[in-house]
Design brief:
about 375 residues; 5 helices; about 40% strand
Amino acid sequence: MKRILLLLMVMIPILTIHAQAPMAGGEWKDNTGRHINAHGGCIINYKGTYCWYGENRSSGNTLYSSKGVSCYTSKDLQNWTNKGVVLPVSNDTCSDIQEGCIIERPKVVYNKKTKEFVMWFHLELRGMGYKSARAGVAVSDTPLGPFRFVRSGRINAGILPKDFIEADTTELRQRLSEPAFNTWWTSPWYRQIERGMFMVRDLQGGQMARDMTIFIDDDGKAYHIYASEDNLTLHIAELTDDYLRHTGLYVRVAMGEQNEAPTIFKKDGVYWMITSGCTGWAPNAARLFRAKNIMGPWERLSNPCRGDGANKTFGAQGAYIFKIRKTKEKKMFDGADYVFMADMWRPKKITDSRYLWIPIRFEDGKPTLRANLLNTYQSSKSN
């Protein structure tokens, strides 16, 4: 009896620590006891195992701290095993992903036709700051890599977006050289941005691609959604059947409205997209869009967040929306089918940035993110 009582005295504090584990703000530790280093990432479920991919950041300078892309695995979305860096930066000075580059927002998808895992990410070349605005792609035969870097570049060079009028191209190119349109943020400048002035500016070299995500539709078609035109306009671009290239079909969304960090999911035939505004590393109010066709038109709705901190997305910025397929895990998220995965950025020490996952609930036919559900998820590896 004394041994049983002693065992209970030891176990009760441990159980209490687990029960108090936060969903947001605390450290999320892996099997080695270290804070999970997978920022701006995504989660896929492959054969019953969750794979979490994200930016591996060192404790160094915010811009140039990229070490590649990490992967963690879990069977229950709580206990995470560190599988290391599955796409490391390169020591080759001729490589686009040489050490010193910036790799952000990695997204991995599985191609059922080619049996390959395809990773897309936002890439900035070494020493260029955020001027390169490229998309990079890598492939692997297994979810745990190693991923082989294929190439990087801007997107859809020489190709106009769907339904864009050819005659407008000449006029907008002329506008670019007029002094009145060299001054940013004026009303005339905004009108030309909405019409596509920056899209035309980048037409020959290819469109800029920064914050991004990848979405696989019900028919297996893949789409690349990214912030373009100096982060002023979103693009949704179709990928080829092997998910390695763009087909040339793309549309412009929310022209001139400054959206980044796109996340997307589909439910009951409707496409939903949650984005953020452009305020650097600081959080802002999330934005919600809806469409019946992924190629638009897209309708902007109100902020999907509700409760304390809703005007700043609870201190976070969206990274990905993943679907839960297991009943046990759904119970952890208040029975929700989808989870909004976000980052609580710490720009002075980017590797110590924290995570926030929120179950997506539908109210009045629209997805909502509620503050009172922030503690639904309790990770046994959190503090």
